[in-house]
Specification:
Keywords: Transferase. This protein is mainly alpha-helical. It has 37 helices and eight strands. It is elongated, with a radius of gyration of 33 Å.
Length: 933
């Protein structure tokens, strides 16, 4: 069998990666399309029944704003309760802080921080709702849900960082069409979503999370002036400080209570202003939040803490008689859009899937309340018709009903289409019956309640179906994407198998073990393949996806135990081995104990996962414990990052340029070192060997003729590692400083152990390093929930917001451990791969031997996991947790793929560049020597 050349290996690998990228892009754009929306905006036709055949004419659609407003009021049949709206958005405020949880009032500290708001609830002057937000719980898609009533596509989480103008039907567009003047102060996301709609505005960046003070003062400084003006109909105040406090210090931050006090003062200022007192209830103050936050202050996932947002109505003439009924209400965030549309006399946005909040219409007469339910039902039924082609419920008479024409309601069973039609017709029939029957007041009240119940049953069923209905996906596109990824995976695995057959068909042990038949499968190799299969199978379970960290920690801990067993079996007995070899084996045993201890500490550093984050762990213990001894440990654990941050605060320019400084150091080292590394004209190698005697066994040190290459890669590798760790000490939360050190200790101890041991094949060693990197990823507090992404760290060193730079920093923080492992592959190559290169090897053989396994093994492992999870996601496309569990995990899988591409590219380019520079210098040296002769 002819050996695979370096050129052929490179071309096949690149072909496999290109196919993989194409397949991944096809699948992503097929599985995560932007959710389709009905074009156009709601107009006069929304006040007529879907079956009436009414269509808006050009005359009506081109009416001046004031005439269009009058037309809407006439057609709606509902007197508008308000003519001005103040929408106060407190970003990241959990409803629990204001309304309590599970029937219990809020914590004492929260109640004392917002006394005025609590007094409004207690006195029946406000009604609060736990408004459930749909994932992803980030600002932009949640604002769109509130103003349009539509649930956007899952990839809105990515568009959140690059907001585009909203073109779908929404409340602000409807308000603008009837001549409203709108003013906005706060989060600039509103300006990006609705460019040109605001008469006045002052936008601030929502992503510069280090700012918790000025970001809200820029809003409040306009409030006094705006409350004295009468030239606006809608005032939006979007406060960001509380969300930023959460990102920096979590729910229990010392800054949280003062920020709640500040927000309560703003509520009091607005409610006590003449604009609320003199208009006799014509101004509605609505306090909302876009999402909640987890204990550590993050958001983006689907946990109760993240989806529990607030909707507080202040100014309604409600019939609430006690505190409980004013605080224990629930609603969906999309319910805000139809509620405000009907309260202010504009059509409900065309793509709304929300249901009006009935209690807000209590001041209206019965017929007006039923009319509001009817309009909401018509709008949702039109949306159902658009989603189900060919849906026909028959003509429903709406006028001229007689008692004899009413046959009563029917039981609704069958397909979802039949159920929706049946529920819709039942509500319409009961409504018509209520309007035309001549009955006593008591019977009329019973009929009214039956009609309301029928409307709510249809509205709830239609809303839930529209909200949960999976978007139709192009099956052909998805199948092609999966096929391409399968082909890519097979290509990469075939290359690995081909290399293994070439390298391991005959293998001579280096030391510390007898001549074994390397054709056999040993326990460690079987374990690695077995747990990889277990990992693939576990992806089918949503619970295991949420708690994936258990698998990685189990894999790496058990692998260390297997190493311990394998090394212990070869401990010398009597004089069976040389004394130096005995010392090596004992050193390998000690290194494994170091690995086991450090891994156990790292495993307990963060609880990890999704469901058990409330359980105690080392990080919580250090953060909350008060004893002097624990404070000392906490001080030591954060000393590195604190020192670096202190230096950055003293020398401000360093903080802004730290990435540039570290990047320049790496570039200069990589580019210049190979040109200045001393070249020895010796067959045995460099006399200035920079390796310590403990890192590479003395009996194998001089077996490689490429000592300069080893020396260069060793220095470059350590430059990568040290610069990366310094950067992480600056970017990571201080509590993670010791965790970063533990990851580094494990990586270098593992490489050190493998450099002494000849017990393992190279592909197995790299698999172990890959597993270590993933275990470290979860050990630093990451999970498969978007809520664990460290947003605050992404703005360290930035004096102003930059979406690109903050996104890069966020990626670097999240994938600190996997990228550190990949960067350490350069050191691994210097102490392992180069030793396998024989005398007088050509360039192709050198590069293939040096780079083959360090690059191919991570790519192949990632390809297996990427392909497997793509198939799982395709199978789970109709699963209940597809958007809350499986889809966020897939985003992490895609990001992990990007990190592998980046890391492997750095390793490949570093090794190739270093080798060719040194080869060129050697040729120049030989040429000079020959010329002298």
């Amino acid at each position: 069998m002819s050996q695979m050349t370096c050129k052929k290996l490179t071309l096949l690998t690149l072909a496999g990666l290109i196919i993989q990228i194409i397949g991944l892009l096809l699948f992503v754009f097929g599985f995560f399309p932007v959710k389709p929306a009905l074009s156009g905006v709601s107009g006069s036709e929304s006040y007529h029944a879907p079956a009436s055949g009414f269509s808006e004419n050009q005359t009506q659609s081109s009416l001046p704003p004031h005439q269009l407003r009058s037309l809407y009021q006439e057609l709606s049949g509902i007197p508008p309760l308000f003519d001005r709206l103040i929408l106060m958005v407190i970003d990241g405020l959990p409803a629990e802080f204001v309304l309590g949880k599970d029937g219990k009032p809020p914590k004492k500290a929260y109640m004392e921080a917002m006394p005025y708001t609590q007094s409004l609830l207690a006195n029946g002057m406000a009604i609060g709702y736990h408004s459930k937000a749909a994932p992803p719980t980030v600002t932009m898609p949640r604002l769109k849900a509130m103003v349009s009533g539509a649930i956007g596509g899952f990839l809105d989480v990515a568009f959140n960082f690059n907001t585009q103008a909203m073109l779908d039907d929404n409340l602000l567009g409807q308000f603008f069409s009837i001549g409203w003047n709108m003013v906005m102060h706060g989060d600039e996301t509103w300006l990006k979503l609705f460019p040109g709609l605001f008469t006045r505005h002052d936008g601030v960046s929502s992503f510069f999370v280090k700012d918790t003070v000025q970001v809200d003062q820029n809003v409040s400084r306009h409030l006094g002036d705006e409350l004295t003006r009468d030239d606006w109909n809608l005032l939006i105040l979007h406060y960001l400080g509380l969300d930023h406090v959460g990102h920096i210090g979590g729910r229990n931050s010392v800054l949280m209570a003062p920020k709640l006090v500040e927000m309560d003062e703003m509520v009091k200022m607005i409610h006590m202003s003449p604009i609320m007192k003199n208009d006799q209830g014509k101004t509605l103050l609505m306090v909302v939040s876009d999402h909640g936050m987890t204990e550590n202050g993050n958001h983006g996932g689907s946990s109760f803490e993240e989806t529990d947002s607030l909707a507080l109505f202040i100014g309604l003439r409600s019939h609430v008689s006690d505190y409980a009924s004013a605080t224990q209400n629930t609603a969906q965030q999309v319910d805000i859009a139809p509620t405000l549309a009907l309260l202010f006399g504009v059509p409900i946005p065309k793509n709304n899937v929300g249901v009006l909040i009935s209690e807000t219409f209590d001041p209206l007469e019965d017929d007006h309340q039923l009319r509001a339910l009817e309009l909401n039902s018509w709008q949702l039924f039109r949306l159902v018709e658009a989603q189900i082609s060919g849906l026909s419920c028959g003509s429903i008479p709406l006028n001229g009903f007689r008692d004899t024409q009413i046959s009563g309601t029917t039981e609704c069973i069958g397909s979802i289409e039949k159920i929706l039609c049946c529920l819709y017709m039942n509500a319409a029939v009961l409504h018509c019956s209520w309007k035309f029957k001549k009955v006593s007041e008591s019977n009329r009240w019973e009929d009214y309640n039956s009609t309301v119940a029928a409307y709510h049953k249809f509205l709830k069923t239609a809303s839930e179906w529209l909200s949960s209905r999976a978007t139709d996906k192009p099956v052909d596109l998805l199948a092609f994407g999966v096929t391409a990824m399968l082909l890519s995976c097979l290509i990469l695995l075939s290359i690995i198998f081909r290399m293994c057959r070439e390298v391991y068909h005959v293998e001579k042990p280096l030391h510390c073990h007898s001549n074994n038949d390397m054709q056999k499968w040993y326990l460690d190799e079987t374990f690695v393949l077995g747990v990889t299969l277990i990992l693939v199978i576990s992806m089918i379970s949503s619970s295991m996806v949420e708690e994936e960290h258990y698998i990685w920690h189990f894999m790496i801990s058990t692998f260390y135990l297997i190493l311990l067993r394998k090394t212990a079996q070869l401990l010398p007995v009597g004089n069976s081995l040389f004394q130096g070899q005995a010392r090596n084996c004992k050193f390998e045993m000690c290194s494994i104990f170091v690995l086991l201890i450090s891994e156990r500490i790292l495993r307990g550093w963060h609880q990890g996962g999704v469901n058990w984050t409330h359980l105690p762990d080392i990080s919580k213990w250090l953060e909350h414990a008060a004893s002097d001894h624990i404070k000392t440990i906490q001080l030591v654990s954060g000393s590195f990052s604190d020192l670096l941050r202190l230096l950055c605060s003293i020398f401000a320019f360093i903080e802004e340029k730290i990435c540039t400084i570290l990047g320049s150091t790496i570039v200069v080292t990589v580019v210049m070192l190979p040109w200045f590394m001393p070249i020895q004209n010796s067959e045995k190698g460099s006399r200035h060997d920079i390796y310590t005697t403990t890192l590479v066994p003395s009996d194998v040190k001089d077996k490689s003729p490429l000592m300069e290459l080893r020396d260069s890669l060793y220095v470059i590798g350590w430059t990568y590692i040290l610069c990366w760790c310094l950067l992480q000490l600056l970017l990571q939360q201080p509590i993670n400083s010791m965790a970063i050190l533990l990851v580094l200790v494990q990586i270098m101890t593992t490489i050190l152990h493998f450099s002494y041991s000849g017990l393992h094949r190279e592909w197995l060693e790299i698999c172990a390093l890959y597993f270590l990197g993933m275990a470290g990823h979860f050990g630093l507090g990451n999970s498969n929930s978007l809520a664990t992404i460290d947003v605050a760290g992404a703005f360290i060193g930035l004096s102003s917001h930059s979406t690109v730079l903050s996104g890069i920093l966020m990626f670097m923080i999240t994938y600190a451990s996997p990228l550190l492992v990949l960067l350490s592959m350069v050191v691994y190559m210097s102490v392992k791969s180069c030793l396998a290169i024989p005398q007088n090897a050509d360039s192709g053989y050198v590069l293939k031997t040096m780079l083959g396994f360090p690059c191919l093994v991570p790519l192949s492992l990632n390809s297996i996991l990427l392909t497997a999870y793509t198939i799982v996601l395709l199978l789970m496309r109709n699963h209940l947790f597809v958007w809350s569990v499986f889809s966020p995990k897939y985003l992490y899988v895609c990001a992990t793929t990007v990190s592998i591409y980046i890391g492997v590219s750095v390793v490949a380019l570093t090794g190739t560049y270093t080798y060719f520079v040194l080869a060129k210098r050697k040729m120049m040296l030989v040429s000079i020597i020959n010329d002298k002769r």
